[in-house]
Amino acid sequence: MSAKLEAIGLGKRYGETVALEPTDLTVQAGEFLTLLGPSGSGKTTLLQMIAGLVAPTSGRIEIAGQDVTHVDPGKRGIGMVFQSYALFPHMSVWDNVAYGLRMRSRSRDEVRTAVDAALAMVRMGEFGKRFPKELSGGQQQRIALARCFAYRPSVILLDEPLGALDKKLREHMQAEIRRLHKELGATFVYVTHDQDEALTLSDRVCLMNDARIEQIGTPSDLYDRPATRFAASFIGHSNLLEGSLADGAVAGSEPILLAAGARLPLPRAANLAPSSRHVLLLRPEALEFVEPKQGFIDGRIDDVVFFGSDTHVQLSLPDGSGLTARCSRTLSPRIGDLVGLTWDPYRTTLLHA
Ligand SMILES: Nc1ncnc2c1ncn2[C@@H]1O[C@H](COP(=O)(O)OP(=O)(O)OP(=O)(O)O)[C@@H](O)[C@H]1O
């Protein structure tokens, strides 16, 4: 059971504060869409308007083609899971999960079947008789998920549901949420400010900044083809080298950017406006080490940081700016060494400054 969700010109102001500029957003039936962005960018406001907990100042919301802008939260066919599990402390796990169904006046048999199925789905079938305080944080969050899934909403909204968990448990629960999304087949809208979580979980990521959508696309669209400087720097580790195009823009067959005290090749298809300043995005993993003067630019190694599977090398470039490269464990970079750096220009992205 899933439904398409649409926001059309949906906006929210609090007096002078714009919490969300009028925004268009379509979430396909069964899709997992994540709202990602810094604090205050409008993620929660957008989610709460979809839920019906906050009234929009402009625009409307449609679920499965029906305008629900003025429909009560409980009648929108939406389930919600928050960071705080908000379980009822005086009720057993089983009764917590049954609560929403009883509120919806389902028959006893229906309630029993749905609660047992929801607890099994979150692998908590054995815990029905316990009370919330007898569970770990991760287990409580599973119960909060089960409580939402039990009545099979077609759209499920999750606001930082793993925010209170430690890193290891968080990663484990991310895998669980992916599995549950597949099993339920519902439309998921998920809020997080953790970019790794957004990239791991989502079919598409909606990156928000300053009360509007900065970019929306698949995780690889955002990582490999960021549309703006903000998107490039918010997602993944980025080296951003700012400069201007070399005279005539084309030297040899490739256009050249003058940046960081060097002549850097650009992808030929880059969108070049000769007069403006440009920023070249180089991901650490796109860089390769060669002998000094054999690459596009030389750098001096300032620091070497061990990351387990690989090593991050901090370098200073000819103009004094810094850059991070990733290098395999087989190389042994030494602080103070001068190295050359090379890359495939087609694995870089050119942005307007
Ligand atoms: N009830 C309110 N009254 C006034 N301003 C509000 C209210 N709720 C939110 N805002 C403002 O609207 C903007 C967007 O807030 P919102 O909570 O949607 O951001 P967010 O991206 O979810 O941030 P966070 O990650 O910190 O939760 C912020 O500037 C916030 O201060």
UniProtKB/TrEMBL annotation:
GO terms for molecular function: ATP binding; ATP hydrolysis activity; transmembrane transporter activity. Coiled coil: none annotated. It holds the Pfam family ABC_tran. Keywords: ATP-binding, Cell inner membrane, Cell membrane, Membrane, Nucleotide-binding, Transport. One of its GO terms (cellular component) is ATP-binding cassette (ABC) transporter complex. One of its GO terms (biological process) is quaternary ammonium group transport. InterPro entries: AAA+_ATPase (IPR003593), ABC_SmlMolc_Importer (IPR050093), ABC_transporter-like_ATP-bd (IPR003439), ABC_transporter-like_CS (IPR017871), Mo/tungstate-bd_C_term_dom (IPR008995), P-loop_NTPase (IPR027417), Transp-assoc_OB_typ2 (IPR013611). It comes from the Bacteria. Transmembrane segments: none annotated. Residues 5-235 form the ABC transporter domain. The keyword Chloroplast does not apply. PANTHER family: SPERMIDINE/PUTRESCINE IMPORT ATP-BINDING PROTEIN POTA, SPERMIDINE_PUTRESCINE IMPORT ATP-BINDING PROTEIN POTA. This is Putative spermidine/putrescine transport system ATP-binding protein. It comes from Chitinasiproducens palmae. The lineage of its organism: Bacteria, Pseudomonadati, Pseudomonadota, Betaproteobacteria, Burkholderiales.
